[in-house]
Amino acid sequence: MASSDKRIRKNHSFFQALRHAIDGLWGAFIHEGNLRREFIASLLVVIGGAVLRVSWQEWLILMLAILGVILGELINTIVEQVVDLIVGPRFDPRAKKIKDMAAGAVLVTAGISVVCGIYVFVPHLVALFGGAL
Ligand SMILES: Nc1ncnc2c1ncn2[C@@H]1O[C@H](COP(=O)(O)OP(=O)(O)OP(=O)(O)O)[C@@H](O)[C@H]1O
Question: Would the ipTM clear 0.90, i.e. be above it?
Answer without folding.
Answer: yes
